[in-house]
Design a protein that fits this description.
With about 300 residues, the protein is mostly helical. It has twelve helices and three strands; from the N terminus they run H-H-H-H-H-H-H-E-H-H-E-E-H-H-H.
Length: about 300
């Protein structure tokens, strides 16, 4: 090949690349097969799989050398074509492309009963000739390849989802089981003991009580919230993401202003706005709430 022809071919390839980049064109495996059928003048009703596979691989190699984007589906179709080609070269006969790609379905075994005959068994002569090499049509090939590629993509997605789920589960689930009730009692006992031994200390930080171990901090956080809900401790955090300080509930109310003072004032103001009937009804509700069993 002369230098001028070489340069002209390179310019042609570059123009094709620019065209594909501008129009965001992805080369598909179906397009390659249809192009080979037309250029190599293959019979759509009797495709030579060996010639088609060789041409397909050559096309992919040319696209890669020209820096075209070759998708995973194109490569998967190539591997499937090679599988069909190897089956033909080994056995010289195929019943079904689906059997090659997906495996042969297991046939149910049938128990045969032996029949004894007194007379001679007549010779069996086949009525039709033995099966020959079956033709492969373009439609059958395309349908089988599309089905195989779709099945493989689903399998890969399922494997990715299962792997991600196992990884996330391994991170999120605790490695050891803990009793919440026992942990609440343990932390409350630890707090009571600490403040008994340190009378001058009114509060303790979460890190000082639990430590810096991540797993222990996660385990202890919910029991502390439960103790706060039961009004046994008071949790104080001046700003978000800062250190949490733990008080005994009575100690906090003794050394700090009433945190519910504003709310109590608002309730009293709303009570003053009620009429006499509403006040009587509210008084009855409070009485029933304080003595739910109706005892004197």
């Amino acid at each position: 090949m002369e230098k001028g022809e070489e340069k002209e071919q390179k310019n042609s390839v570059n123009q094709d690349q620019i065209h594909d980049l501008l129009f965001n064109r992805e080369i598909g495996w179906q397009e390659i097969i249809y192009d080979l059928i037309n250029t190599d003048q293959l019979d759509p009703w009797n495709i030579n799989i060996v010639i088609l596979t060789e041409g397909y691989l050559e096309k992919i190699q040319k696209y890669e050398e020209a820096d075209f984007f070759v998708s995973s589906k194109v490569l998967l179709a190539a591997s499937l074509l090679l599988r069909i080609k190897s089956e033909i070269l080994l056995n010289k006969y195929i019943q079904s492309i689906d059997e090659i790609l997906f495996g042969q379905k297991e046939k149910s075994s049938i128990a045969f009963e032996r029949i004894e005959l007194n007379e001679e068994i007549p010779e069996l002569i086949p009525r039709s000739p033995m099966p020959r090499f079956r033709k492969v049509t373009l439609q059958e090939l395309m349908e089988s390849l599309n089905k195989a590629i779709t099945t493989e993509n689903r399998r890969i997605k399922r494997e990715i989802i299962n792997t991600n789920a196992l990884r996330e589960t391994g991170i999120s689930l605790p490695k050891r089981k803990h009793s919440i009730k026992d942990k609440i009692r343990e932390i409350y006992s630890q707090l009571s003991k600490h403040f008994e031994q340190n009378n001058e200390q009114k509060k303790i930080s979460f890190t000082e009580l639990i430590g810096k171990d991540r797993e222990q901090r996660i385990i202890a956080f919910f029991p502390l919230l439960q103790l706060d809900h039961q009004k046994k401790v008071w949790l104080e955090q001046p700003k978000h993401f800062e250190e949490i300080h733990i008080w005994m509930h009575k100690t906090y109310l003794k050394h700090n202003p009433d945190p519910f003072a504003d709310l109590r004032e608002e309730i009293e103001e709303e009570k003053e706005k009620l009429d006499s009937e509403e006040k009587k009804r509210l008084k009855k509700i409070n009485k029933d709430f304080e003595n739910p069993l109706g005892e004197d």
